[in-house]
Amino acid sequence: MKTSIKKINNMLNPTLEETFDPQSMIALIPIHCEQKVADIGSGPGWLSIPLAKYLYMGKCIAVDIQNEMLKKVKSQAKKYKLGNVETILSKENIVPIDNDSVEGVVFSDILNESTDIDKILKEGIRILKKSGWLCVVEWLPSEESKPKYGPSKSSRLKQEEIRKKIEKNGLSTITSRHLTRHKYIIVARKK
């Protein structure tokens, strides 16, 4: 699936209603500047770049199924003179990163697009080191039949269901709360 340049630019410059301030997420995760963090479903790097800036002694690995998105991540990293951004082309629900190799995993607005939520969550957990953290940011369920922002009503995932899936896979929840009026965040740690 090819993504248009216009769509990529819209993804890099979303309205506040469509997204969230990356710093509000970073403030809630147990991130440290020397960690290696995977941004799974990175898109054009909207979140990868702020993560890489924070990880100035570590690395941000942008993982996406579209090469066009990863090219944009690379150009954004070059623009901001970030040498700690790695890009990895993946297949849907398969993350080509070694087991137990990263301290953090971020899924931002990606689970609602997945064809197999359990499989992609397990992939994220597989690559996490012991005591590593996982962060999920997703759209809150909507009462509107056609929400003004974000995915369709039927594509939205219930926060409690995602939290239970994460805990069922052996992680313990650190926080599970609203991030904005339209989004929730779940942060969990691998035991």
Task: Give a description of the structure.
Helices cover 28% and strands 27% of the residues. By secondary structure, it is an alpha/beta fold. The protein has a seven-stranded mixed sheet with strand order 3-2-1-4-5-7-6, sandwiched between helices. The protein starts with a helix and ends with a strand.
Would you kindly provide a brief summary of this structure?
By secondary structure, the chain is of the alpha/beta class. The chain has helices at residues 5-12, 22-26, 48-54, 67-79, 117-127, 159-168; strands at 36-40, 59-64, 85-89, 102-108, 128-139, 171-178, 183-190.
Note the main attributes of this structure.
globular, Rossmann fold, 6 helices, single chain, 27% strand, seven-stranded mixed beta sheet, 191 residues, alpha/beta
Strand order of the largest sheet: 3-2-1-4-5-7-6
Number of helices in the DSSP assignment = 6
Q: According to CATH, what is the class?
A: Alpha Beta
What is the second-level CATH architecture?
3-Layer(aba) Sandwich
Provide the fold topology.
Layout: H1 5-12, H2 22-26, E1 36-40, H3 48-54, E2 59-64, H4 67-79, E3 85-89, E4 102-108, H5 117-127, E5 128-139, H6 159-168, E6 171-178, E7 183-190
Parallel strand pairs: 1-2, 1-4, 2-3, 4-5
Antiparallel strand pairs: 5-7, 6-7
